[in-house]
Specification:
Blueprint lengths: L4 H9 E3 L7 E4 L3 E5 H14 L8 E5 L9 H17 L2 E3 L6 H8 L6 E4 L13 E4 L2 H8 L4 E4 L2 E8 L8 H12 L7 E6 L8 H10 L7 E3 L4 H9 L19 E6 L6 E3 L7 E3 H4 L6 E4 L7 H11 L9 E4 L4 H9 L2 H7 L3 E2 L19 E4 L15 E4 L2 H10 L28 E2 L29 E8 L6 H4 L12 H4 L11 H10 L3 E6 L11 H8 L2 E6 L4 H9 L3 E5 L13 E4 L2 H7 L3 E5 L5 E5 L4 H9 L5 H5 L2
Parallel strand pairs: 3-4, 3-6, 4-5, 6-7, 9-10, 9-12, 10-11, 15-16, 15-18, 16-17, 18-19, 21-22, 22-23, 23-24
Antiparallel strand pairs: 1-2, 2-8, 5-20, 13-14, 21-25, 24-27, 25-26, 26-27
Helix pairs in contact: 2-3, 2-5, 6-7, 10-12, 10-13
């Protein structure tokens, strides 16, 4: 049997382990990327390792999340990021140059390479045939220092694409179709590999939209072959020498094959408040719309915005709609400015926003109370927009513009327009002046540290017995936005004591104060959760800040991959109920005890939760590699190297 594309890339980078699905493997990382919301802590951790220069082929630091400088904190952090990059061999993409995933696709991504990024949408790179994986900042820091990345050897699911998309149906509708089939739950430990004749009908930006939003499936990553379409894209970026052909063997094996007829797909939306709550546009047509936002790393490419401009040319936005457009990169902005498309967008009544993540992460453009907002971004979690009561629908640029023009959710096929024919240029505008190379004289660089920057906190070794209280009990699909709010709170990302004040702010405003009081009293805090705990962002602060507050364990029905790894990295035990029914046996405020924790981990013994309040005893499951066990026993990754030398 032949080899699939995923395993071809993994095999060429394998450092430890064997290709047996579920077993722990380690792979060499060629490239890393960070963004400012997660990167500040990642570089503080990198500095703590004492490695003078990065040991990857390429590392890039992007500023694209918190570019609004509404206080000194963000500006200080940006200066820290610029100086630490110059000193340690990292390229620095300045604020305004664009969103990390869009810029990396344009200027740095290379087929067949591995990319580790401190952002959950790093799989965007799979659109050009990279094995691009999102991870916590500490894992990225280790990779920059030359260490491998550890993960469970994935199952590989082939999505076999046939036929081609019809007019007014886009790549966004493709990934929404897949989310409707596979949902956001139950896909941990898998990689999606796209194949079939339909692949040849999709451009690189379309492929990147699909792999980007594949993160919402909960898979490790998604990847497309590298073919002549990939080559043309890289040639247009004047990087044809980076191209290599990559594809699966004709007789390659897969753990599962899913067939998808592109010609059968129609315009879709994800209804509030989950990316897998998918319906056809016709099913929700007529819903009044207050706001429309086009952009984010999912749908802000040159192709996307040229389509938007073509639909808007000579037309006006509905007077009841607030409409904003954010190009994904400065390259895209300059190109649509140069060919007149930007003028068509402006003339329609659109607000032109900075080339940043912005509205996608709740950093500006919060809708009004109870608003309906149509967005081309990748997540519509409750409150993520910055307005708790808002109802956010995810849609393609075509559907978004149709809503902006009519004031209600509208199937773009009902506008009576001819579908725009978008011609992709054979040569893109290249200007890398806002990407600063590292210093050739690192000794001359002084790293800037503002008063908001502190040292990365270290955890304490795992106690023999966890004896404490259920500080909070939450339900299914708790996201990292629920745990650690973004938006205006992100400016405290490098000040853990301050940022920790907002843990679970939107769920239980008193959680942080209560947990800190428990910690000071010597009482361990435990979090109890339902299924798919830790969905969404890779932000490791959702583990660091709870650790700072004295959380020792999270007991859930199931976890999402990145967050579970982050909990281990910061010495918090991710445990699962032996039976989902046991979730109902533990309540908020219960006193509990988990005895002989260290001994159990060392011997593989089952852990038992003794309910001091309920009087019930329930079994808990865990699955850690020997490496993860030792990290937990040491109290986290930052303590791990020291513990190994004892």
């Amino acid at each position: 049997m032949g080899v699939n594309l995923v395993y071809k890339i993994v095999k060429s980078h394998l450092v430890e382990g064997t290709l047996e699905p579920g077993s722990e493997i380690a792979i060499r990382i060629d490239q890393t990327l960070t963004q400012d919301a997660t990167g500040t802590m990642a570089y503080l951790q990198f500095e703590a390792m004492g490695v003078p220069r990065v040991r990857t082929e390429l590392s890039v630091s992007y500023v694209d999340h918190n570019t609004l400088q509404d206080g000194f904190e963000n500006a200080d952090d940006h200066r820290y990021l610029q100086t630490v990059a110059a000193k340690h061999g990292i390229y620095y993409s300045k604020a305004g140059n664009g969103i990390c995933h869009q810029v990396h696709l344009e200027r740095f991504g290379r087929p067949g390479k591995t990319l580790l990024g401190s952002d959950s949408h790093t799989p965007t790179g799979g659109g050009i045939g990279m094995l691009a994986i999102g991870a916590g900042g500490l894992d990225v820091a280790v990779a920059m220092g030359g260490g491998p990345f550890y993960l469970a050897c994935p199952k590989v699911v082939k999505v076999n694409l046939t036929n081609k998309l019809r007019p007014w149906v886009s790549a966004k509708d493709v990934i929404l179709s897949i989310l409707r089939m596979l949902t956001t739950k139950g896909n941990v430990g898998a990689v999606i590999e796209y194949g079939g004749e339909g692949v040849k009908t999709l451009s690189v930006p379309e492929r990147a939209t699909i792999t980007n939003m594949g993160a919402e499936l909960g898979v490790t990553t998604s990847v497309f072959p590298s073919d002549d379409i990939t080559r043309s894209f890289l040639k247009a970026q004047k990087r044809e020498s980076d191209w290599v052909a990559l594809s699966a063997d004709p007789d390659a094996g897969y753990d599962r094959v899913v067939d998808l007829d592109l010609g059968s797909i129609e315009p879709l939306v994800a209804k509030p408040h989950s990316p897998d709550n998918v319906a056809t546009v016709k099913e929700v047509a007529g819903v009044r719309v207050d706001q429309v936002m086009v952009g984010s790393c999912t749908n802000s490419s040159y192709r996307d915005l040229m389509l938007v401009a073509s639909m808007l040319k000579g037309k006006k936005i509905s007077p009841e709609v607030s409409f904003g457009v954010a190009p994904g990169s400065r390259q895209v902005l300059e190109m649509i400015a140069g060919n007149g498309a930007l003028s068509d967008i402006i003339a329609s009544g659109a607000r032109i926003l900075e080339s940043t993540c912005g509205f996608c992460i709740g950093a500006g453009q919060a809708p009004k109370t109870d608003a309906v907002s149509i967005r081309t971004s990748n997540r519509n979690f409750e409150g993520r927009s910055g307005t708790r009561s808002a109802k956010v629908y995810l849609a393609s640029p075509e559907t978004a513009v149709a809503a902006a023009l009519t004031g209600v959710i509208t199937d773009p096929r009902d506008l009576g327009l001819s579908y725009p024919g978008i011609t992709i240029p054979t040569e893109f505008r290249i200007d890398d002046s806002m990407i600063l190379p590292p210093s050739k004289d690192p000794g001359s660089i002084t790293v800037y540290r503002g008063p908001n920057i502190g040292d990365p906190p270290k955890g304490e070794p795992l106690p023999q017995t966890i004896q404490g209280v259920v500080a909070i009990k939450v339900g299914d699909k708790i996201t990292t936005d629920h745990i650690m709010p973004a938006g205006p709170r992100l400016k405290y990302r490098s000040n853990i004591p301050k940022y920790a004040e907002f843990v679970f702010e939107g769920v239980d405003p008193g959680f942080s104060k209560k947990a800190l009081e428990n910690k000071k009293a010597g009482v361990h805090n435990i979090i109890v959760a339902g299924a798919s705990y830790g969905q969404g962002s890779s932000r490791e602060h959702a583990a660091i800040c709870p650790m700072f507050l004295g959380v020792k364990a999270v007991i859930a029905k199931s976890f999402e991959r990145i967050h579970a790894a982050n909990l281990v990295n910061f010495g918090i035990l991710p445990l699962t109920f032996a039976s989902d029914a046991d979730y109902d046996s533990v309540n908020n405020g219960d006193r509990i005890e988990i005895a002989d924790v260290r001994k159990a981990l060392e011997t593989g013994k089952t852990l038992l939760l003794a309910g001091k309040t309920s009087g019930k005893t329930i079994a808990l499951k865990y699955s850690f590699s020997a490496r993860q066990r030792d990290i937990l026993l040491a109290g986290g990754m930052l303590n791990y190297p020291k513990a190994r030398t004892k």
